[in-house]
Amino acid sequence: DLIEGVERFKSPVLFLNSECNQLIGRQHQEKQAKFFPVVRTAVVKGSGHSMFGEKPEESIGIVRDYLKDR
What we know:
Blueprint: E1 13-18, H1 26-33, E2 39-44, H2 51-54, H3 56-68
């Protein structure tokens, strides 16, 4: 069970979405985010499943901003 106990994790969890991903895009991430008490979401516009390869500066920038707050 991969979600057992996640409700006890109180730090914000980042869900990074790619705008053009039809398989596990925003809608899928929204379903997963419901299991966590504190969630931040971000979208890499114009990217597909390989957002770090397609839009590396934007993707890494979002992750860096998230980690700055930790």
